[in-house]
Amino acid sequence: MQSKVSRQGQSAVHTVLMKPARERFKAKLRDFLPRMSRPRCTIFMSSRPVDWNTDPEIVLELLSEELALPLKWKESVEALGRVGLEDLFECGPSKELKAILKRIDADVWSRTCNVEV
């Protein structure tokens, strides 16, 4: 793997610059495959505004693909709104997702809670 310098605040994640890292990432994810089970709820991925509840092998493939695909926030948030979402939890120290949601869909934003982990 080779790193590339980007301007402050920018990242190569979710760009074609991550394609070389994709296979190594996928190999690491495979280590978890024996312990993975099917999702118990619908999952929305940021680069794919498609919900799925499927075989862990496919989940692994989608996760590794996501590393080098552009994010589709608007489509993802719209998909969340269409399925009758009751609550959305953003897990992490920042409130970036909630800020994005406010600009896209005020109703989804109002049902979002940030949980610091």
UniProtKB/TrEMBL annotation:
One annotated GO molecular function: transferase activity
Gene3D superfamilies in alphabetical order: Malonyl-Coenzyme A Acyl Carrier Protein, domain 2
Domain of life per record: Eukaryota
InterPro entries reported for this sequence: Ac_transferase_dom_sf, Acyl_Trfase/lysoPLipase, Mitochondrial_malonyltrans
Protein name: Malonyl-CoA-acyl carrier protein transacylase, mitochondrial
Organism: Symbiodinium microadriaticum (Dinoflagellate)
